[in-house]
Specification:
Elements lengths: L5 E7 L1 H4 L9 H13 L3 E5 L7 H10 L1 H9 L2 E5 L2 H14 L2 H26 L7 E5 L9 H16 L5 E4 L2 H4 L3 H4 L9 H12 L4 H7 L2
Parallel strand pairs: 1-2, 1-3, 3-4, 4-5
Helix pairs in contact: 2-10, 3-4, 3-6, 5-6, 6-7
């Protein structure tokens, strides 16, 4: 009897796209390969990432794009990278006007968008009689010289921790990149290089595969 393949849907911003590296070095491609080996099943990747997308734009994509919705409905694994662009856009305004309300508003919008995204994923998965794991990838700090950056990135990362429930888990990446930026970031000093994307994939893998692992062993 032929085993059913697992479907992996990657949702998010440039970290999902794999900006700056060959396609097979991207975070989703690396995670797919690691998951395939761990589960002993073929894993098919559907990458829906959009460079520059904010959390609200990612939510809109899942709500409105029929292809993305179909990929979510058939998914066994889902990863989400979001929040970096929300924070960057707010930080650019903040460094001009120094109004902390700008950053507070960005945090509120991010939290609301992520909560709504989790509800939308749940709705799309209703009546699907098979397990699906969701991994929410946190944000690292590419500018540690600014104290404000560290403070706000940690607050953004606390949002996805609060969303953890059942098969939804937060991937903590901050500490893994802290002190290793020369090694893990590309020449643009913001996006990961191939090794950086591999670190994201390995950290996601370490959270396990929930009910999928049990199903794969059958």
């Amino acid at each position: 009897m032929k085993q059913r393949v697992f479907h992996y849907t990657a949702i998010g911003d440039s970290l999902t796209v794999g900006y700056g590296v060959p396609e097979d070095h991207s975070f989703p491609a690396r995670y797919r390969a690691i998951a395939e080996q761990a589960l002993g099943r073929k894993v098919v990747l559907h990458n829906t990432g959009k460079v520059g997308a904010t959390s609200s734009e990612i939510l809109q994509l899942v709500q409105q794009d029929p292809d993305v919705r179909a990929y979510v409905q058939q998914a066994d694994l889902i990863t989400v990278t979001a929040g970096g662009n929300d924070l960057i856009q707010a930080a650019k305004i903040y460094f001009n006007d120094m109004k902390v309300e700008t950053l507070k508003k960005a945090l509120v919008v991010y939290a609301q968008s992520m909560r709504r995204l989790m509800l939308e994923l749940k709705r799309l998965r209703l009546n699907k009689n098979r397990p699906c794991i969701v991994r929410l990838v946190g944000i690292y700090n590419p500018i540690p010289e600014f104290d404000e950056a560290a403070f706000w990135i940690k607050r953004f990362n606390s949002v996805i921790v609060r969303l953890e429930k059942d098969s939804i888990r937060a991937v903590q990446v901050y500490d893994a990149f802290d002190g290793r930026l020369e090694e893990l970031l590309s020449d643009d000093r913001f996006h990961p290089n191939s090794e950086g994307y591999n670190v994201l994939a390995e950290l996601t893998h370490k959270l396990g595969y929930g009910g999928l692992a049990h199903k794969a062993s059958k």
